[in-house]
Automatic annotation (TrEMBL), chain A:
Residues 125-404 form the NADH:quinone oxidoreductase/Mrp antiporter transmembrane domain. The keyword Acyltransferase does not apply. Keywords: Antiport, Cell membrane, Hydrogen ion transport, Ion transport, Membrane, Sodium, Sodium transport, Transmembrane, Transmembrane helix, Transport. Residues 617-681 form the MrpA C-terminal/MbhD domain. One of its GO terms (molecular function) is antiporter activity. This is Na+/H+ antiporter subunit A. NCBIfam families: 2a6301s01, PRK12645.1. GO terms for biological process: proton transmembrane transport; sodium ion transport. It is found in: Cell membrane; Membrane.
TrEMBL record, chain B:
GO terms for molecular function: sodium:proton antiporter activity. Belongs to the CPA3 antiporters (TC 2.A.63) subunit F family. The chain crosses the membrane at residues 6-29, 41-60, 66-89. It comes from Bacillus mesophilus. InterPro entries: MrpF/PhaF-like (IPR007208). It is found in: Cell membrane. One of its GO terms (cellular component) is plasma membrane. It is a multi-pass membrane protein. This is Na(+)/H(+) antiporter subunit F1. The keyword Chloroplast does not apply. It holds the Pfam family MrpF_PhaF. It comes from the Bacteria. Keywords: Antiport, Cell membrane, Ion transport, Membrane, Transmembrane, Transmembrane helix, Transport.
């Protein structure tokens, strides 16, 4: 059933364009809505089974290659599956009201369903190849969705950027996964985890870890690969809410969580994941403060929250992993609702720029109420109805409470982690406040808005409202969520059942509470004095931002490859020939040198004086051609070489060859003379002396190579020649005394036939070239 | 007596071969040096004749009749080649199109 459900969105996607075309009166989204809803309900029904024992559903696809469509259902994948299908339902519902019927809805829902299917595949797949396949499907469908309004330049730019970065990471992840599966000998993720010692003790552990983490970091927008996420905000808002806050960007988180049983406990994993996570947390929250676009703030906020989750997964302690999983759930709820609120504001006012917004509270009271829950939950305001606070405090707890074995690497870095965490959270607080207060309070600037804003239709409010209700419910009654969702998920990540309960109040004297208070006060102070800090925000990071680096790298690759290609693709046949012959000479001579292939056997037949004189004539003629400046003279001297060759055939008693050579030589000379009528005077290209020297070296090198090969092959007779057979059997089998002719037409007649074909083709080609002009007409 | 005749034949063939070969070399000098293209054409034509001589001498040396065709062929080809070159040098074309047009 689950096998089918995962690809069900793909199958329904085939229908979407037809529904859009045939049933124009009904918004296509209504048909699509059924799919995620059904999956969500089915997954809910699975929870009870999975809580006790994870399911393994197998289906053979390519068993001979070890690629099977195996699904593994445990707490972690169920949690993600519920997020994907649940928020998917809400997003589809929201998009019904957000996107007008005049948009290309057929396209939109095909992409969205494709993405949903891919994402479900990612979280449930057990086979690394199937996993990777779905992983790239998410990149592809995300690319299509970001570029949905493809008439805009920025959409296309953002789509390309996200594609380049995520596919780059995806490919390196594939390399890492294949490497690990080769070490273990299985392509099942479950088996990989069971054999984690083989991998962690392997000498190639570091590259494998880095390759896999590269995939996770690019997908989850970790520093320095976060740069695609803000540009992906060109997508329609439902897409941003779904892909770039709740689901796709968590695929990397999912990968790290899924494999943390494999890597956890190693110092490399701890340092890289938590280090980059904290860096991303601080950088993302700092950059978010600078943004003026609502979705820009939310994008950087997503980056920083993802960094926080990543850092906690890196900590690897029980409380940290629990907090990470909890925050995945919380972040999906509040960030999804915030994106939808931003979409509503955009929809109702026509702008998302906080410098033009303000004072919307009175005009859009319901939207503002929804926003306040999302924002305060994101900032971690200590109120019992905000789920963000619960996970944020657990994050502080985890940062303080690292394993402190003496001498370990944990002890060295542990004192810094709480400080970094607090700094990141302060900025989180500041941008959350900006997000809310700059939009909904302050002075109303109606003149700058395109239309008078008011609360949107009720349908648009339902989805964010559901998420906001979830925020409050999770905060007030965390128990059931803990029991049915979080505990199984943490069990799947840690391999053991956690003993964590969620409390709002930990008592007075504990570090997390003080850290929360510091964040609260410093954050408020920073927000109130924000105008004074503006010039600092605007100066940093300046030209050091990752955006600029990305542009520099991409442009550099284009420019560099253009320069490189132009350097050898000159369009001059002469230089191509130089390259070809030069390489043959270098490689041939090197092979001959390294394999010691040269052989010389002087006990061959002696030659007579006349043979020598003819050979000398040919050599002198051949060399003199190079220095001749007259075309006819050159062709006549070439004739000398040809006639000399036929004479050599006479000397070595090959009358047939001599005959043929004579005729061909004469015809060739005649043909050359025919062509000369149409050719201009022979002019030497003015070449630099360096080029001339290079030509000389290449030609001499090639000549030496061919000479050496000739001498060597003549001197080393390894096998008996088969010519005796022809001599003996020419008359008996072929019925002819002329052995050469018997070979040509009888024993190896196929070659002759094809040579005749070659001549025929050449003749036809010449006819075609002469008789037909460019337009293809007969002259 | 017969042996002496064979010996004489052998040596005379060898000497002729060497002499004709040297003449080829000298003809090559004329072909390369020129100074005009007709000089070169004559050089090549004469070289064709020496080729006939060489082929015949080699046939005697190898005591075979298979090269007789070669000798005849060289005669024809040397003539055709020289005519073609001469026509080219004189008119610039080898095959006239004038008659087809009229």
């Amino acid at each position: 059933m689950l096998h089918f459900l995962i690809i069900a969105p793909l199958l329904i996607a085939i229908l979407a364009p037809f529904l859009y075309k045939k049933l124009k009166s009904v918004h296509t989204g209504w048909f699509v809505l059924v799919v995620p809803l059904f999956i969500f309900i089915y997954l809910l029904s699975l929870i009870r089974t999975v809580i006790h024992k994870p399911l393994l559903l197998q289906l053979n696809w390519m068993p001979s290659l070890g690629i099977n469509y195996d699904l593994y259902v445990d707490g972690l994948s169920i949690l993600f599956g519920l997020l994907i299908s649940g928020i998917g339902t809400l997003v589809v519902f929201y998009s019904i009201y957000y996107l007008h019927k005049t948009e290309k809805l057929g396209h939109f829902y095909v992409y969205l369903l494709m993405f949903m299917s891919a994402m479900l595949g990612v979280v449930f797949s057990d086979n690394i190849f199937v996993f990777y396949m779905f992983w790239e499907f998410t990149s592809l469908s995300s690319f299509l969705l970001i570029g949905f309004w493809n008439h805009r330049h920025k959409s296309r730019y953002g789509a390309q950027k996200s594609m380049l970065i995520t596919v780059f990471g995806g490919l390196s992840m594939l390399a890492g996964l294949i490497w690990m599966s080769l070490e273990v000998g299985s392509s099942s993720i479950r088996v990989l985890i069971q054999n984690s010692e083989i991998i962690t003790n392997s000498p190639y552990f570091m590259p494998m870890l880095l390759l896999v983490l590269l995939g996770a970091f690019t997908k989850s927008a970790q520093f320095p690969f976060h740069t695609w996420l803000p540009d992906a905000m060109e997508a329609p808002t439902p897409v941003s809410a779904y892909l770039h806050s709740a689901t796709m960007v968590k695929a990397g988180i999912y990968l790290v969580a899924r494999l943390s049983l494999l890597f956890a406990g190693t110092d490399e994993f701890f340092l890289i994941v938590s280090g980059f996570g904290l860096l991303t947390l601080c950088w993302g929250s700092y950059m978010a403060v600078k943004q003026t676009d609502l979705k820009g703030i939310l994008a950087y906020s997503t980056i920083s929250q993802l960094g926080m989750i990543m850092a906690m997964l890196g900590f690897g302690t029980g409380i940290a992993v629990f907090a990470a999983i909890f925050h995945i759930l919380n972040h999906a709820t509040f960030k999804g609702s915030l994106f939808m609120v931003a979409g509503i504001v955009d929809h109702e006012t026509g702008t998302r720029d906080i410098r033009r917004l303000g004072g919307l509270y009175t005009l859009m009271p319901i939207t503002a109420t929804l926003a306040i829950f999302g924002v305060f939950s994101m900032a971690g305001i200590p109120l019992p109805i905000m789920n963000g606070f619960l996970s944020k405090e657990m994050f502080f707890d985890a940062a303080v409470d690292l394993r402190l074995e003496s001498g370990s690497i944990y002890q060295m870095v542990a004192p810094f982690f709480p400080i970094i965490a607090v700094i990141g959270s302060i900025f989180t607080f500041v941008y959350s406040m900006i997000l809310f207060f700059k939009t909904f309070t302050g002075k109303l600037q109606l003149s700058k808005l395109e239309r008078k804003p008011h609360d949107p239709p009720i349908g648009m409010l339902i989805s964010p409202a559901v998420l906001v209700v979830l925020i409050v419910v999770i905060a007030l009654f965390p128990g059931p969520f803990n029991k049915y969702l979080l505990t199984p998920a943490v069990t799947a990540v840690m391999g053991e059942v956690p003993h964590t309960k969620i409390y709002f109040w930990h008592g007075f004297y504990n570090a997390p509470l003080f850290m929360s208070l510091i964040v609260l006060f410093t954050g408020t102070l920073l927000y109130l004095t924000r105008d004074k800090w503006l010039h600092v925000y605007n100066r940093l990071p300046g030209r050091w931002s990752m955006n600029k680096t990305y542009d520099y790298v991409v442009n550099g690759i284009f420019k560099g490859s253009t320069v490189l290609t132009n350097s050898y693709m000159t369009g001059s046949l002469r230089s191509y020939f130089r390259i070809i012959v030069g390489f043959i000479a270098i490689i041939g001579l090197y092979t001959m040198y390294s394999s010691n292939g040269f052989a010389l056997n002087i006990n061959s037949t002696p030659f007579s004086l006349p043979e020598f004189l003819v050979a000398l004539t040919m050599a002198v003629a051949a060399i003199s051609i190079i220095f001749v400046h007259n075309r006819i003279a050159a062709i006549l001297i070439l004739g000398v070489v040809g006639y000399g060759l036929s004479l050599l055939f006479v000397f070595y008693s090959a009358p047939d060859l001599a005959l043929t050579q004579l005729i061909v030589e004469t015809v060739t000379v005649g043909l050359f003379l025919l062509c000369f009528y149409h050719l201009p005077e022979l002019k030497r290209d003015k070449e630099t002396s360096g080029n001339k020297l290079f030509n000389l070296v290449v030609s001499v090198g090639f000549g030496v190579l061919i000479t050496l090969i000739g001498i060597s092959s003549h001197s080393s007779k390894w096998f008996k020649p088969i010519s005796d057979y022809f001599l003996e059997n020419s008359y008996e089998l072929g019925g002819g005394n002329n052995v050469v002719n018997v070979i040509l037409v009888d024993m190896r007649g196929l070659d002759t036939m094809l040579e005749i074909c070659v001549l025929g083709i050449a003749a036809l080609g010449i006819l075609a070239m002469i008789k037909y002009n460019r337009k293809g007409d007969l002259e | 007596m017969n042996e002496i005749a064979l010996m004489f034949l052998h040596w005379s063939v060898l000497v002729s071969l060497v002499t004709v070969s040297i003449s080829i070399l000298l003809l090559l000098y004329r072909t390369i040096k020129g100074p005009t293209n007709p000089d070169r054409a004559i050089g090549l034509d004469a070289m064709g004749i020496t080729l006939i001589a060489l082929a015949a001498l080699v046939a005697i040396q190898l005591n075979t009749t298979f090269f007789n065709e070669v000798i005849l062929l060289i005669g024809i080809l040397a003539f055709i080649g020289t005519v073609a070159i001469a026509k080219f040098i004189e008119k610039g074309v080898i095959i006239d199109h004038d008659r087809d047009k009229s």
